[in-house]
TrEMBL record:
Organism whose genome encodes this protein: Dicentrarchus labrax
Superkingdom as given in the UniProt entry: Eukaryota
Protein name (Swiss-Prot/TrEMBL): glutathione transferase
Subunit details: Homodimer.
Enzyme class: transferase
Catalytic activity of the protein: RX + glutathione = an S-substituted glutathione + a halide anion + H(+)
EC identifiers of the protein: 2.5.1.18
Pfam families cross-referenced by the UniProt entry: GST_C (PF00043), GST_N (PF02798)
Length: 267
């Protein structure tokens, strides 16, 4: 796993007086990729004048900094991402996204002030971590990490069961969350769409085209891409879409240390 510190310097628009320096810890481990992707999409989408600077960690500390003393001061949860804004520290990606949207007074559509529209955003954000996110992550591990890095053959029944669960969530995505609307909250893109797209791209990164045979989901994906811009969309998903090749270059020994826990979790 790689660990980087993202220093985000927000330059407010001329009509605002808001200025702050933020640091956001983000792990580039494949199993945590949605958090990083969402952060990058939000930075590009929410803040037109956001400057993103990546500070890579040394080889000796890479992948372990969230267990270090300094990261522990930000959050004892020791998971990424984590945000520090002056003396204020915050964990959990959804909470961080909401905090950034509120603090920087982003355009209303990202996190709407309208009670019912915001409720739609919160509804998806409250469901996703045990629904689409977990199932997308599981598919990715079963198809990529476990066989290619841990060297373990995944039983077909486990793959079939994970795919059945994923298909159930994708059906909910179309029938419950998207329905006949352009986006989850209505006519405009929101935080819910940003979180959703990075979760759906996980199984795509494993070689599973979840958009095939799902015209409604595919059309929604195209609208999200158009709303945030193709360049940012492609940049944010570059790592996950190249994951099957990237694993060949990874140090497999580090993940082997966690093999019993990983197999217990996914198999």
């Amino acid at each position: 796993a790689k660990l980087a510190v993202l220093s985000l310097v927000f330059r407010p628009r001329p009509h605002t007086e808001l200025s702050a320096d933020l640091s956001l810890g983000c792990e580039h481990a494949f199993h945590r990729l949605p958090d990083e992707f969402t952060g990058r999409l939000v930075l590009g989408g929410l803040c037109e004048e956001a400057e993103l600077v990546r500070r890579g960690c040394s080889g000796e500390t890479r992948g372990r900094e969230h267990y270090g003393e300094e990261f522990g001061k930000i959050t004892p949860i020791r998971k990424v991402p984590a945000l520090r804004d002056g003396d204020f520290c915050l964990a959990e990606s959804v909470a961080i996204l909401q905090y950034l949207a509120e603090k920087f007074k982003t355009p209303d559509f990202w996190y709407p002030a309208d009670l019912q529209q915001r409720a739609r955003v919160n509804e998806y954000l409250s469901w996703q971590h045990t629904g689409l996110r977990w199932q997308g992550t599981k598919i990715f591990w079963l198809r990529v990490f476990i066989p290619k890095i841990l060297g373990v053959d995944v039983p077909q029944d486990k793959l079939d069961g994970a795919l059945e669960d994923l298909n159930g969530s994708l059906k909910l995505m179309e029938e419950k969350f998207i329905q006949d609307k352009p986006f989850i909250a209505g006519d405009q893109i929101s935080l819910a769409d940003l979180v959703a797209i990075v979760e759906i791209m996980q199984p795509v990164g494993s070689g599973l085209d979840v958009f095939e045979g799902r015209p409604k989901l595919s059309a929604w994906r195209d609208r999200v891409q158009a709303a945030i811009g193709k360049e940012l969309f492609d940049d944010a998903h570059q790592i996950i879409l190249g994951a099957r090749e990237s694993v060949k270059l990874m140090d497999h020994s580090k993940l082997q240390l966690f093999k019993p826990k990983i197999l217990k979790l996914f198999l």
